[in-house]
Design goal:
The protein is α/β, with parallel strands linked by helices. It folds into four domains: 2-142, Rossmann fold (3-Layer(aba) Sandwich), CATH 3.40.50.2300; 144-310, Reverse transcriptase/Diguanylate cyclase domain (Alpha-Beta Plaits); 321-437, no CATH class; 441-547, Homeodomain-like (Arc Repressor Mutant, subunit A). The protein contains 23 helices and nine strands. It has helices spanning 11-20, 23-26, 37-47, 63-73, 92-96, 109-128, 132-142, 144-156, 191-198, 203-217, 247-269, 287-299, 332-340, 344-360, 366-386, 414-436, 445-453, 461-468, 472-483, 487-503, 510-517, 522-533, 537-542; strands at 2-7, 28-34, 51-55, 78-83, 101-104, 179-188, 223-229, 232-243, 273-277. A five-stranded parallel beta sheet has the order 2-1-3-4-5, sandwiched between helices. Strands 7-8-6-9 form a four-stranded antiparallel beta sheet. Helix 10 (203-217) packs across helix 11 (247-269). The chain is globular, with a radius of gyration of 29 Å.
């Protein structure tokens, strides 16, 4: 009854699909093959297949180009995309196109036949019912994940109406009498970094990758349906469901699967993922409580305990932290005094003292970190406005503190939280200092602070003489009187101190360190290091102790 076209440049992949497919059971009478997208388009015009299976990486014409042309020339053609974990950046067109399903390599028998069965069901529906209502239902079926997402969100928000949504209950298992469900919430702690490095700054692709891993790691009796939190892109909501079984069994299995998914995401993409789990419930309409428990468990993660940000918050994480009463509002007078005086170093000292008190509290939750970051941003924004400094282009300004992707800066532990707070102070502080630079007298500390911040740049003394209208000789004399060394000597010291620190990280190559310090090449850096310390960077790294 049906014809299937397999497009893949690897003959063994096409042969594997031929072997694994339940063609007779699916009513497929003819299987044709093509090795590239161009010949496949000719074959579609000649053979008119009902279903096309296409690999995303091919010579001549890749899967992305094929999908675009096929969608234009054959809008009713059902397509199943085949790709691999590392190919997500090439599958943007697959996400946008009306593909029937997406298979990851290596293709297994169960996933293959499930995708084909889904396509055949759509074909049968088209042939059996031609009315406008059924056509709308087919379109709805192709958007099933989005519909399920909306249903689950309405349950979490406690706005779901069983009577008005009666027809959709089977889609989420709400019609089953023996089903069990539970919710989990995952947060990608280094969302912005991974989104930029691995997914070309497209959060939809990152979320798609996470959803695929969660689904792939699912057990035989446990289904995982996941989607991004519409209010916070870095968080992924997962609903685990099973037919029958005990609540404890579901909770135990879901906990194992989440940990496996977290490990897989770390291996594949370098993601740092924290999560919280809710308790199982017998009725899908009771999932709101499970979701709130999962969210609360995630927020309770203590950033002061190393490693907990990559482990489960879990349903046994204990009572919710009462939190710290160390607010920032009472310290804004100190920040204002320091920044009005042009002393960013003093402002950093005020922040370091505050962060030190937080660290000594012994418990600092993820929820508290979110609150403190947002509070600091609002307070700094207000201070900048009062001092006449524009903040329109600073992260979060005018957007309720949400970045374009994750919603706030990356941090996976307290040290990274400290770095995020320091970066925020630096950004707002520099804007305030720039605004005030024309109205206050020159201070030699400005030159030192600039070198401390931008040691990796090609710093020239003329930059300061032109900015402050001072002679080269006078500026260099002032600096040496204040700090005991010349400007060039100080720049070299800052770079060499930083070099020793970076060499302590075995994961960094000498070339990478040279780049980070602003040297032209590795040899130039090695020569400078040897002249300063009397041994090469490699010898320093290999020497016992910390040098």
């Amino acid at each position: 009854m049906y014809t299937v076209l397999i497009i893949d440049d690897e003959e063994h992949v096409r042969e594997a699909i031929r072997i694994l497919g339940d063609w007779e059971g699916l009513g497929v009478l003819q299987i044709v093959e093509a090795a590239d997208g161009r010949s496949a388009l000719d074959m579609i015009a000649a053979r008119k297949p009902d279903v096309v299976m296409v690999d995303m990486k091919m010579p001549e014409m890749n899967g992305v180009e094929f999908l675009r042309q096929a969608e234009r020339d054959h809008p009713d053609l059902l397509t199943i995309v085949i790709s691999g974990y590392d190919d997500f950046e090439f599958t943007r067109q697959a996400i946008r196109s009306k593909v029937a399903d997406y298979l990851l390599k290596p293709v297994n028998r169960a996933d293959l036949n499930q995708a084909l069965r889904k396509a055949v069901q759509v074909l049968e529906a088209r042939r059996e019912r031609q009315s406008e209502l059924i056509n709308r239902n087919i379109t709805l079926n192709m958007s099933l994940p989005k519909l399920k997402e909306k249903l689950y969100l309405s349950i979490f928000e406690r706005s779901f109406n069983r009577q008005s949504n009666e027809a959709f209950l089977p889609l989420i298992g709400a019609d089953k009498t023996n089903g069990r469900q539970m919710a989990a919430v995952l947060r990608v702690m280094n969302f912005d970094d991974i989104c930029a490095r691995r997914f070309n700054q497209e959060n939809a692709l990152l979320q798609f990758a996470v959803a695929n891993v969660l689904s792939d790691v699912g057990g035989k009796r446990l289904q995982a349906f996941s989607f991004a939190d519409p209010k916070l892109a870095r968080e992924i909501i997962v609903v685990y469901s099973a037919d029958g079984g005990y609540a404890d069994e579901l909770a135990f299995t879901a906990g194992i699967l989440v940990k496996q998914a977290v490990a897989t995401l770390a291996d594949l993409f370098g993601m740092q993922v924290a999560f919280g789990l809710g308790t199982p419930c017998p009725d899908v309409l009771e999932l709101a409580g499970s979701y709130e428990e999962a969210k609360s468990a995630l927020k309770r993660i203590n950033l002061l305990k190393p490693g907990t940000a990559a482990e489960a918050g879990g349903i046994s994480a204990g009572r919710e932290s009462r939190g710290t009463t160390l607010g920032l509002a009472g310290r804004m007078g100190q920040f204002r005094s320091a920044l009005e005086a042009g002393n960013l170093l003093q402002a950093r000292s005020v922040l370091a003292d505050y962060l030190g008190q937080l660290r000594q509290s012994g418990s600092f939750s993820l929820a508290e970190a979110d609150v403190r970051l947002r509070e600091f941003q609002v307070l700094l924004g207000d201070l900048a406005a009062e001092l006449g400094a524009g903040t329109e282009l600073l992260p979060g300004a005018g957007t309720g503190g949400q970045t374009e992707r994750g919603g706030g800066p990356d941090f996976a532990d307290f040290a990274q939280f400290e770095a995020a707070m320091a970066a925020m102070l630096q950004q707002y502080g520099e804007r305030i200092l720039e605004s005030a630079a024309g109205s206050r007298p020159f201070q030699i500390t400005d030159v030192r602070d600039y070198i401390d911040r931008y040691y990796f740049e090609d710093i020239k003394i003329s930059m300061f003489t032109e900015k402050y209208y001072l002679s080269r000789e006078y500026l260099m004399k002032l600096f040496k009187q204040q700090y005991g060394v010349g400007i060039h000597e100080y720049m070299q010291k800052v770079r060499m101190d930083k070099a020793k620190e970076l060499l302590g990280d075995p994961g960094l190559k000498i070339q990478e360190i040279a780049d980070m310090l602003g040297y032209k090449d590795k040899n130039y850096f090695s020569k400078a290091f040897r002249n300063y310390y009397g041994l090469s960077p490699s010898d320093y790294r290999a020497a016992p102790g910390d040098g």
